[in-house]
Amino acid sequence: MTVEIVGLVGGLVVFTFMITLLTRRQLKEKYAVLWLLVAVVVAVLAVAPGLLDTVATGLGVETPLNLLLFVGVLVLLVVCVHLSWESSRLEDETRALAEEVALLRLQVEQRPDEGQG
Questions:
Q1: CB 69 within 8 A of CB 26
Q2: Which residue in 20, 34, 64, 104 has a CA-CA distance of 20 to 30 Å to 71?
Q3: What SS3 state is found at 11?
Q4: Which pTM does this prediction carry?
Q5: What is the mean pLDDT of residues 90-97?
């Protein structure tokens, strides 16, 4: 019974933390959805621990913990790939903006002084 309570509390803490970050605008919705989903799954598995056994048996996995760890690794892998993609995209965008700022600065510096004389 204690493990279920810890799992439920953990899921609720993560859920509450994500909602707090969303309301403070410190986390974008597209990132929070995944973590809210993880929190809900953890809470559901804590409330109904037999559900993991049923799913594991249905998928032919011998040990439910193996299924849980496999799914956890897949989720983390997807998150890492997504963050790498976002990082690459933002790096390209930052480079383009830096080049644009440099060109605008050059134009301003080369402009003849107007209204002075």
A1: no
A2: 20
A3: helix
A4: 0.71
A5: 97
Q: How many helices (H) and strands (E) does the chain have?
A: 4, 0
Contact 43, 7 (CB under 8 A): yes
Cα dist from 38 to 7, 42, 59, 105, whole Å: 12, 6, 20, 47
pLDDT in tens, 31-83: 888 888 888 888 888 888 899 999 999 999 999 999 999 999 999 999 899 99
What does the alpha-carbon distance between residue 98 and residue 92 come to, in Å, rounded to a whole number?
10
Cα end-to-end distance, the chain, whole Å: 85
Contact present, 43 and 54 (Cβ < 8 Å): no
Question: Which tops the pLDDT comparison, 112 or 107?
Answer: 107
Q: Which residues of 68-79 are buried (b: 16+ CB within 10 A; e: fewer)?
A: beeeeeeeeeee
State the pLDDT confidence band at 101, using cuts at 50, 70 and 90.
very high
Give the tokens for residue 41.
């799954």
